[in-house]
């Protein structure tokens, strides 16, 4: 019994020494001792499509654009945790915008939601001229080389008061540059022109 107690104390001392040396965490097995590993942070650079703001698409300016998506091919296997889109407000927007990651249906259109951001920016968060709008509280797992879609939807439809999502026309060719629109988030149509909507993302690391 004394030998067992001595062994446990020695292991605990070793764990404490390792922790003090700056290790992120140690899990000890066989002696009933667990040292937690710190949680991952939303600080990694994730997938993106950035360019020259060649134009914009309205989101919520009519019923067929209430949902808008843009495809991308995942650069790594990761969990995306936030999105930042290049957007602006047209008129006085009265709704909220939701952002999600969707799977692909095999025909370059969104299929199923894999996760949505919990933050929902409104007029106070969307600039009058093009700028960053960030969506936080996202958790969507993506796999290297697989096609996905960034999808946003507006809670309101108004021909004069809506949001704009900016696109580029040549810098995201590797991602297919396919953008889509939908009235209900179920049936999708391809927008005219090969214009990829701009976004950046963060991943857990």
Question: What's the short story on this structure?
Answer:
The protein is built from one helix and 14 strands, in the order αββββββββββββββ. It has two domains: 1-38, no CATH class; 44-203, Sandwich (Jelly Rolls).
In whole angstroms, the N-to-C terminal distance is 43 Å
Output the structural class. Answer: mainly beta
CATH architecture of the largest domain: Sandwich
Order of helices and strands: HEEEEEEEEEEEEEE
State the helicity in percent bands: under 10%
Question: Could you tell me the strand content as a percent range?
Answer: 35-45%
What do we call the CATH topology of the largest domain? Jelly Rolls
Low-confidence stretches: 1-26
Mean of residue pLDDT values? 87
What's the gyration radius in Å?
A: 23 Å
Q: Number of DSSP strands?
A: 14
The number of distinct helices, counting runs of at least 4 residues, comes to 1
Shape: globular
CATH level 1 name of the largest domain: Mainly Beta
Number of domains: 2
